[in-house]
Amino acid sequence: MTRVLTARTVNGIACYSPDVAESYADYPDAAFEVTDAEVERSFWVRSRNRLFGWLVQQDVTRLGRANLLDIGCGTGSFLGKIIDMPGLSATGSEIYLSGLKIAQKRQPRAEFIQFDVTQGVLDRQFDIITAFDVLEHVEQDEAGFRNIHDMLSDDGTYIMSVPQHAFLWSRLDEIVHHKRRYSRADLLTKLIAVGFEPQRVTSQVFFLFPLVVVSRLLDRSISGAAPTDDAQALLARVSFPRPVNWLFDKIMRLDEALIRMGLSLPFGSTLIVVARKSGA
Known about the structure:
Layout: E1 8-10, E2 13-15, H1 31-38, H2 43-63, E3 66-71, H3 77-82, E4 88-94, H4 97-106, E5 111-114, E6 126-132, H5 141-151, E7 152-163, H6 171-175, H7 184-193, E8 196-204, H8 209-222, H9 230-238, H10 242-260, E9 270-277
Helix pairs in contact: 1-9, 2-10
């Protein structure tokens, strides 16, 4: 039987999984400040927010009104892009308090809670659940998928992304505590097993994929000489000069355009799945 979690307040935040709120076992504490500093400049984050914002809008239009839960909201970047969407009520959840404290400052109008999706479910259901680059951080991803399924309304939609292709594993995956990179077959098998029916499956970072492959291979070869401090090492890998961010942002728009047209891109460093409950 699925465990329904209850909250207690810690530092002004409703915590449904307080025992892990400050463990930082699956994501480094310092990474929240690093990613928050880069979020507005990063071509990857900007592209992700545009595409996923569009996907959410499709479902809000379909449903008329929707209650959304963003699992692993980090510092609240995505919620900030959709919070004013007509008909949408959004809640951000994050397992670690460091990210939530930044998110609350950045998005004071949004609701944020502390929650470990592998431990159980919340005492309410949601019409849209999103989890962008989250489940690769946890050992028990099947439990996470099952709990997400149980929290989703019968006609709701689950929108998710994960890092793809095991051969791209590099020092970056280790820095941010990834447990795996998924294959398309592995992810779909796990989703179907808990009762999801994929509606849309596509890769992202398609046109930039050759550069991703080269950068990850180089990362493996120089990792021994790279900074050992996780914050410095992460910053070195996610920070790009302004002209590079501008150029890559334009290239990512090609990915977005093809996905909006309904095409499934065959490969890329990110895998995206839009799913609903089987038989819904």
